Structure formats: C-alpha cells, structure tokens
C-alpha cells in the first residue's frame, strides 16, 4: 500500500464513530456495525487510531466555540450592558515626522478615501508610494485574478502619475517587507503607512515589516491603518463577541469618505536613489522568476496551473473608475440594470454557462422573476465584491455614501445591509486574531475568497517537505472549522517522525466566514473548497468531510482528480454511496451528469 495513503485505510473502521457535530444524536446501529469486520492495516502505528478516537470523542459543537458569530440568547439586561462597551473608536493615525512611504497592497488600490495616503500627504519631506508583487500572493492567484490585480495596480500607477506627477515604485520580490524596508533606507523614510487587513498573507507581511523596523533602533515607524465604516467603531472591545453587542454601533451613520489629497510632493532625493524602480509593471517572465526563488511557491503555482476551471461570473477588469461606474449604475437604476451590464439579459438562452455554479445562477435568474429572483443584495455583492473587498478599488465608506443617496432606494437599502455584514465580519476577524493562541498546534487565520473573509485553522508550523500529505477537513451543516482543532492536535502528536498536518476551513456562510447575500448552492461550496486547497493548503491533500462536508469533499475530489486529491475520508457523509452499476442506472434515468445536461 502507498505509505502516503496508509492512514486512510487505518481510519476507515473508525470514521463513523466521529458522529456528526451538527447532529443531535448518533445514527442508530452505526457504531456496532462499524466496530467489527475490519482488520487493522499492517505497519500502521496504533497512535494514529488511539489519538483519532480520543480526540474525535471530544469534538466541540458550535455552541462550545469560544466566540460565536451568530446572535446568542442573552437577557435584555446583559445585552444592554454589553452594548455600552461593544466597540472602540478608531485611533487617530500619527503624522509623519520627515519622509513618508505608502505601501499599497491588494485591499487599498485607490487614491480616494485612503487614510494612509491622506496622512502621508502631510509629510514635511515628501511622499513615496510602492507596490510589490509578493511571491506568496502571486502563487495563490488564478490567471483571471492575476489579470484583475495587474489591472488595478496599473490603474493606481496611472492615477498617481496623472493627478500628482508621482511615481509608483513597483517590483516583484520574494519578500515584500524586505523590499519596503530596503526602499525606506534608500530614501531615509521616517514613517511607513500600510493597510491592516485580516488576511493571512497581509498579517504575516505586516508583522515581518514591524520586526525589521524594530531592528533599526526605531528610526522607521510602521503605522497600520484601517478605513472602518464608522470611525466610532474601529474595533471590537474584549467584551464584544457577538453581533447583538455590536448592533448599537449601527445606530450612527457611517463616516463620510475622505477625499483624495489635493497634492502630493515627491521627496528630494539628491543624495540617495531607490535601488529599484520599474516604469510600468513587471512582465510575466519576471513574476515567474520570483516564484523560482522558492521551491514551495513554485510547486504551488504549478499545482494551481494544473487545475483549470472557469468561474463564469467573475469580472474581467478592475479599476477605481470601473468600480465607481458600476456603483453609480446601481444607485441610479438598481440591481436589474447592474446585472444586465455584468451578466447580460437574465433570460438570454444564447448564453452558455461556463461552470456549474454559473449554470445554477442563470437557472434562477432565468425564472419568471428574472434577476429579482436572486437573494436581495446578491447582484451588488457579486459584481463589486472583488473590486471592493479584495482589491480595494473603492472603500466601504465610498460605497455606503453613494448607496445612502441612491435613487433605487429598495436595492440600495439591501446593498447597505450587505456592507454592514462585510464590516461586522472584518471587525470580528481582527478580534479573532487579537485573541492570541487558541488551539494547540493550530493557528486561526483568514483568507479572502472572492473578496469574502473565511476563517480557517492551519498547522502552527509550516509542514516539512517530507511530512505526510495534509488533510483538509470540511465541516457539516451549521458547524465550523474549530470542531477539528482537537483532531489536528492529536494527529500532530501521533507520529513525531511523520506528523499529519490538518487544515480546516469555515465554508462560506458558516462559522466566522462571511454570510454574503448569495444564492448558495452545492457548487458555490465546492468552489470554495477547491480554491482553499489550491490557494492555502497549496499541496496535494487528503479530503475529509463530515455530513454535508462529505458531499463537498466528494465533489471537489471528483473534479480535482487523484493528482491533487490523494484520498477521501467520509465521516457520516451526506448523500448515498452507490455502486458503479447503481450509479450508471441513476445517470441514465436522470439524463446524464449536471455538466452534460448544461451543454444540451
């Protein structure tokens, strides 16, 4: 037996004992039938099985998670007391003492309502702006998303040049913080302004830059900044851990967006010049060269390129001007006009779906209600989420100001609700990260899926090259990634020579992942799982699913194939398990697979 897959055979007799975390009781007869008839696999250490059985018996339910993203049952008196201390105001951003450096990243690629740029504009000795295509971010991106990122950075470069005559220093590098630190020394910068987004890669880069600055005897000050929807609610207090405790903040109107600086002055560089300056953006060859500097990132990029699929509903361009155009169209004419601009006519039978998710979306939109049949706020969120939440071509405050003044009142009101949810989950993510170490052997992190924040747990230490294939655990309905934390610890300690790294994510709509107004289907969840594996796990893995997560694991495995999915573990999985004969009979009776029926 392949040693990489031997643990799967060892787990098989025990998987049904896990019990669905979202079930109130065990299925009758399962444990008795599964506890016999399976001989242990030769060569498998009993620590795997002992650790798995012990840890899974204590898997926490959602109600036992330390913090709930849902509204708990509280007495009115407790809720009122919590509302008084639920949020903290955003602190004022310090002014630069000499030369200021603005490090742009995905999430703030704009000049309007940019607190970092506005504060840097007050620097006595001028402002420099930079953007670095970091290898670890490049390796995560699909071809479409890489195209969007390049377009947004190029638009930012053009705006800085046309508005202020200011250059955007651009390069591709293995380490963004090292390049920023190098630039700061070249120009004697005193202050660096950088957007603090809860995304894993951004948090790691920010911490690395802060560490470099501390080694410079405090000569370089790093200022993380946010653009909260309300300046009076810049973060959650330690007492605020549920939406009810935050809700009172919504009683105040969102903060008006900051205007772009009237002017920006470049520093006089008479005695020092930046060691790197690229007129324009790095070409594809330069980006590939950066990936070659790290074998792990090179393998990750190759893995992503080996799996090709099309979203079908994503945008093909990104810029501040394009985001503002779409926002203006929505506020003036409503969701129907925006949907037709982005997706075409709702009942356009000539439009061929490029993915199962798009097919399901168009099936709803092609109904009697057209785009009105979608979830309220869905059109706005689908069209603008990547440009607004991932790239930051416009801020939440800019969008909120336009929506409050919009002529399409009902649609604008629904879109505002979506923005409020975006802001709540951003604050919740930052609060989660501020809690420190919650689980042994696992860290809580966040990544953005199509702009939406999704929480996940990952090994505290990067798995070694010779470690066992990672396991990607997928939770069941109304559960979350934290139910797998005890299992992650048990697997990490079970074999000190070859530990098993475990990753688990909150699927979109569950746990501390965002709950966007999307018509969620199994295809949306499947895409979320596939993107997480390719972007974050970044290696061939074993998929393990509980309940509806088992269905997602099977769906993703069928698409990814054995080169990416090294095995499948089903824990009380949803959906029937059919023999090949029964499967063929079902196919014939239903007219083929979903993909085949889409092409008819």
Automatic annotation (TrEMBL):
Q: Where is the Photolyase/cryptochrome alpha/beta domain?
A: 99-230
Q: Where is the composition biased (Basic residues)?
A: 67-80
Pfam families linked: Abhydrolase_6, DNA_photolyase
Query: Membrane-crossing residues?
Result: none
**Matching InterPro entries, A to Z?**
AB_hydrolase_1, AB_hydrolase_fold, Crypto/Photolyase_N_sf, DNA_photolyase_N, Rossmann-like_a/b/a_fold
Q: Which SUPFAM superfamilies match?
A: alpha/beta-Hydrolases, Cryptochrome/photolyase, N-terminal domain
From the UniProt entry, list the residue stretches annotated as the region Disordered. Answer: 16-41, 67-94
Q: What is this protein called?
A: Cry protein
Provenance organism? Symbiodinium natans
């Amino acid at each position: 037996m392949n040693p990489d897959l031997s643990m799967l055979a060892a787990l098989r007799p025990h998987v049904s004992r896990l019990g669905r975390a979202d079930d109130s009781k065990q299925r009758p007869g399962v444990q008795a039938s599964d506890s016999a008839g399976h001989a242990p696999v030769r060569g498998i250490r009993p620590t795997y099985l002992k650790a798995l059985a012990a840890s899974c018996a204590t898997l926490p339910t959602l109600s036992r998670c330390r913090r709930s993203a849902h509204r708990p049952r509280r007495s009115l008196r407790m809720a009122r007391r919590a509302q008084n201390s639920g949020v903290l105001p955003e602190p004022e951003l310090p002014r630069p003492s000499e030369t200021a450096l603005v490090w742009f990243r995905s999430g703030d690629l704009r000049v309007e309502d940019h607190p970092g740029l506005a504060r840097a504009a007050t620097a006595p000795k001028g402002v420099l702006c930079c953007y670095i295509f970091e290898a670890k971010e490049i390796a995560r991106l699909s071809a479409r998303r890489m195209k969007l990122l390049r377009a947004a950075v190029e638009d930012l470069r053009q705006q800085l040049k046309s508005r202020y005559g200011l250059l955007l220093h651009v390069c591709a590098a293995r380490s963004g913080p090292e390049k920023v630190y190098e630039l700061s020394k070249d120009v004697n910068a005193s202050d660096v302004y950088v957007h603090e987004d809860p995304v894993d890669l951004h948090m790691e880069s920010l911490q690395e830059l802060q560490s470099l600055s501390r080694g410079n005897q405090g000569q370089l000050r790093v200022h993380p900044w946010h653009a909260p929807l309300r300046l009076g609610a810049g973060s959650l207090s330690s007492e605020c851990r549920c939406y009810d405790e935050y809700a009172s903040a919504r009683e105040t109107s969102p903060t008006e967006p900051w205007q772009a600086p009237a002017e920006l002055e470049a520093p006089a560089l008479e005695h020092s010049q930046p060691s790197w300056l690229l007129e324009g953006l790095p070409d594809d060859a330069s980006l590939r060269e950066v990936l070659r500097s790290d074998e792990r990132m090179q393998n990750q990029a190759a893995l992503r390129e080996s799996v090709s699929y099309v979203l079908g509903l994503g945008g093909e361009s990104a810029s501040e001007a394009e985001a503002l155009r779409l926002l203006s169209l929505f506020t003036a004419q409503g969701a129907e006009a925006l949907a037709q601009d982005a997706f075409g006519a709702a009942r356009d039978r000539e439009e061929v779906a490029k993915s199962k998710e798009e097919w399901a979306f168009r099936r709803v939109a092609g109904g009697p209600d057209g785009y009105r049949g979608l979830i309220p706020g869905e059109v706005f969120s689908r069209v603008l989420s990547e440009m607004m939440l991932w790239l930051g071509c416009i801020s939440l405050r800019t969008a909120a100001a336009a929506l409050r003044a919009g002529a399409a009142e009902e649609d604008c009101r629904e879109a505002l609700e979506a923005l409020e949810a975006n802001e709540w989950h951003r604050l919740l993510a930052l609060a989660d990260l501020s809690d420190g170490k919650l689980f042994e052997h696992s860290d809580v992190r966040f990544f953005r899926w199509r702009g939406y924040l999704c929480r996940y747990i990952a090994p505290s230490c990067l798995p070694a090259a010779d470690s066992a294939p990672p396991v990607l655990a997928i939770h069941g309905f109304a559960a979350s990634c934290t139910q797998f934390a005890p299992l992650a610890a048990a697997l990490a300690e079970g074999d000190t020579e070859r530990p098993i790294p475990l990753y688990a994510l909150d699927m979109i709509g569950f746990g501390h992942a965002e709950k966007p107004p999307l018509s969620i289907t199994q295809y949306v969840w499947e895409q979320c799982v596939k993107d997480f594996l390719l972007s974050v796990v970044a290696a061939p893995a074993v998929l393990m699913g509980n309940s509806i997560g088992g269905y997602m694991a099977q769906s993703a495995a069928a698409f990814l194939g054995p080169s990416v999915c090294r095995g499948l573990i089903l824990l009380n999985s949803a959906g029937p398990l059919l023999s090949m004969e029964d499967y063929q009979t079902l196919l014939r009776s239903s007219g083929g697979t979903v993909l085949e029926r889409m092409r008819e």
